[in-house]
Amino acid sequence: MIKVRRIELALWAVTIIFAVATAGTLFWRPAIPRVEIPPAGLDTPPAPGAPRVVMDAAAVQAIVDANIFSSSRAAPAVRYSPLEPDPGTGAAMMPDPALTETTGGTDDEAVPHLYGTVIGPRGATALMRLDPAIPGAQIYREGDRGGIYRVVRINEQSVILSGPGGRIVLSLIPPGGPTP
Question: Model confidence at 107, in pLDDT bands (50, 70, 90)?
Fold first, then answer.
């Protein structure tokens, strides 16, 4: 009986020690050393030849004040096009002639043109230029119409179109294959 009493007292002592230690860790917060590392490069001058960016303070403040997540925001009435004149200045960004591709023919010769296909879980799509009135390529699905053509079938390496001259098969050129 005395042995059981000693074990019981020892267990009570261990319980009290753990309770005091737990209470101490709850109320005593250790001080974490705070080390401030300054950002690198703020005191170095800009590299020679690097463009200097000058920001208009009012424009920067307007951007900061704008709430881009506001539910009252709507899409602009006119889509921005860098090649069209800016309504405020009348200036337009003109494409660099050195970067534009020149062909000896007309735009009609480039239609129809297949740029690529994608077969995915939502079906097949193709990036093509079918309408000479629309600059650049558009994404088409089977059944879509572009200009005088209708997309009949999209395969991995080819697209079948239906036009006024009957069916046309546009094929992709394999990498390393012959170029037209």
Answer: very low
- Which residues are CB-neighbours of 47 under 8 A, at least 6 positions away? none
For residue range 152-173, list pLDDT tens digits in order. 999 988 999 998 888 999 998 7
Tokens of 45: 């001058």
Determine how many CB atoms are found less than 10 A away from the CB of residue 168: 13
Start-end of H helices in 50-169: 57-65
CATH of the domain at 124: 2.30.30
Query: Does some domain include residue 143?
Result: yes
CB atoms within 10 A of CB 170: 20
Please check whether residue 24 lies inside any domain of the structure. Answer: no
Q: Rounded distance, CA 56 to CA 145, Å? A: 46
Global pTM value: 0.39
